[in-house]
Amino acid sequence: MADITRRLGWRHLRGAPTAHIRHHHGGKLLHDGPGLSFWFRALTAALSEVPVDDRELAMTFHARTSDFQDVAVQATVTYRIGDPALAAARLDFSIDPDTGVWRGAPLEQLGTLLTETAQQHALDVLARTPLSTALVDGVAAVRERVAAGLGAEPRLPATGIEVVAVRVMALRPEPDVERALRTPAREQIQQEADRATYERRAVAVERERTIAENELASQIELARREEQLVEQRGTNARREAEEHAAADAVRAEAEATRSVRLARAEADGVRAVGDAKAQAQAAWLKVHEDVGVATLHALTGTRLAENLPNIDSVTISPDVLTGLLAKLGAREPE
Description:
single chain, alpha+beta, 3-stranded antiparallel sheet
C-alpha cells in the first residue's frame, strides 16, 4: 500500500521499491516505475500500484482418483507480475488517491486464476491414477503436471503473470481410508516389534541359561578346589603332627640323655664326696687312734659345745643336782 500524505490540497505519494506505480493525468502517463515519490492532485490523478515482488499462493483442493477415492492436495505456487503495465491494463490495480488502498481486489483475482488453473491440471492427472499409486508417486506427478500446465496456460502471460515455482506438500486420502491403509503397515510393524521382542527374550533366556551354567560350573570348580584344600590341609596337618612328634622324640631323647648325664654327674659327685668324707674320717680316726680316752672326751665336749645354742642362764633343780652328785660320787672310788 502506497504512503500518501496531504499538503494544502496536494497529495504526496511515496511508493515501495517492490511496488510499480503508474500515474495518469488527463489520459497521459506522467510517472511509471517502482519506488517512485511525487506530488499530485487528487481530483485529476489516476493511480495504480502493481506489486512486483514474489508472492506465495497456498492452495488446498480435493480430487478423486481413478478408483473413486477422494484425496486432498496441498500445494503452493510462487508467482510474480513480470509486466506491470500489462497487469494494470488487464486487472484493476487502481488505488484511492487519499488512502492509497486498492479500490478492487486484484490479488484475489490472480489467486483465483492460479488456483483454478492448478486445480484443473491436478484433477486431470489424479483422475487417471489409482489411490495406491497416487500416494506413492502422486506428489511428484502432480507437481510436474501443475508446473507444466501453468507454464503453458496462455492467460497468464497475457495478464503479465510469471510462475516462479510450484510445490506440492502433501496428498492425503480421507481419514477412514488413511486409517485402513495404515492398518497393514502398523500390523507388520507390530509383528516386527513382537518378533524383535521375542528374539530379545530368547536371547535373554539363553544368556541367563549360559550365566546359570557358568555359575554352576564355577560352584563345582569351587567345591573341587575346596575338597583339594581340605585334603591338602589334612596332609599338612599330618605332616605337621609327624614333624612335631619327631621333634618331641628328639627333644625327649635329648632330655633323657641330659638327665642321664646329670644323674651320672651327680652320682660321680656324691661318690667323690663320700670318698672324700671317708678319707677324711679315716684320716681323722687315724689321727685320734693314739689319743687317750680323756682327750677324746674333752674333744667331744668341745665339739658339742660348739654346736649347742647360746645359754644365758641354767636352772638346776634339787632333783637334778642330787642325781649329778650321786653320779660323781659313784665315779670317785675308781
